[in-house]
Amino acid sequence: MIRRQFQFACLSLLLAASAHAQTAYPNKPIRLIVPFPPGGGTDILSRLVANKLTEVSKWTVIPDNRGGAGGTIGIAEAVKAAPTGYEMVMGQKDNLVVAPWLYKGLSYNPTTDLVPVAHVAYTPVVIVTAANSKYKTLADVVAAAKAAPDSITYGSPGNGTTIHLAGEILKTTAGIQIRHVPYKGSNPAMMDALAGNIDLMVSSVPSAIGQIKSGKLRALAVTSAQRSSSLPDVPTVAESGYKGFDVSTWYGLFMPAAAPKDAVARVHDEVNRLLATPEMVAAIQAQGAEPKAMSADAFAQLLKTDYLQWRDIVRNSGATVE
């Protein structure tokens, strides 16, 4: 009798363990929505995270590009996705804390419709021009713009991005008029900058660093308070005569607000574990970004703080998107 009870108990434990193994998260592919087209900074970092989770953690993470409208289309799709833990999005300052104050009637509120999962990296914005351009420094651009207002064009990955706002804030700070040309992502803007169809491009460092390193683009300035570790020879806008100028962007993973807490915690822990490895640090820095892990609470607070701070920045810049 005792032996039979013992055998039954062991069988029960084995069945419970088997059921847990079958339901343990994740037990199927995770879709990672990338809210910009292939080739840009967001796409590069998204695929790096997806590949590392697949390679190191043995998960299956599938990037899915849903670009357009400054990244807001992809974010809106993530908000509407089933909150199962198998749908997440690579959000950034552009579409989460800038776009809501630029676009009228945006369908989501990032502070209530999404849950921050894991902060991944941050990066300054870089102002570039073609290698054969007549502009050798930011001072050259400012002087030319003052001599002939509205004659200089600058491209960005789209309206409502931090990158777009960096250009608008520079216009206000330097007292110049240059004309914004929005694109549907960094790659088409890059092609026109290389071809000389636009005078300047304002870009994330990951999107532009390859062309800068190859000598096809000239970096005039970065917009962060400190120089980029990936471009140490490129001066900041502040060093170029505009004290206090500081615009950078961050990237992080988000899920729909009702996503299971255990799935959120699992992805958070796994991404932070990857960010602590020298291989992941080197891979992110090679793309021109700076890896930065933080707690879920700290990431949520960053979102809320930036969301309110950029309301005033956008209003003061005078920038709007119809």
Strand content: 15-25%
Fraction of residues in H or I helices = 40-55%
Counting DSSP E segments of at least 2 residues, the number of strands comes to 10
Global outline: globular
What sequence of helices (H) and strands (E) makes up the elements? Answer: HEHEHEHHEHEHEHEHEEHHEH
Low-confidence spans: 8-22
Helices, by number, come to 12
* Amino-to-carboxy terminus distance: 78 Å
Largest sheet entry: 10 strands, mixed
Structural class: alpha/beta
- Mean pLDDT metric: 90
**Rg on CA atoms, Å:** 22 Å
Walk me through the structure.
The longest helix has 22 residues, at 2-23. Helix 2 packs across helix 9 (205-213) and helix 4 (93-102) packs across helix 12 (296-317). Strands 1, 2, 3, 4, 5, 6, 7, 8, 9 and 10 form a ten-stranded mixed sheet that branches. The radius of gyration is 22 Å and the shape is globular. Helix 2 (41-56) links the parallel strand 1 (30-34) and strand 2. The protein is 46% helix and 20% strand. The protein is of the alpha/beta class. The chain contains twelve helices and ten strands.
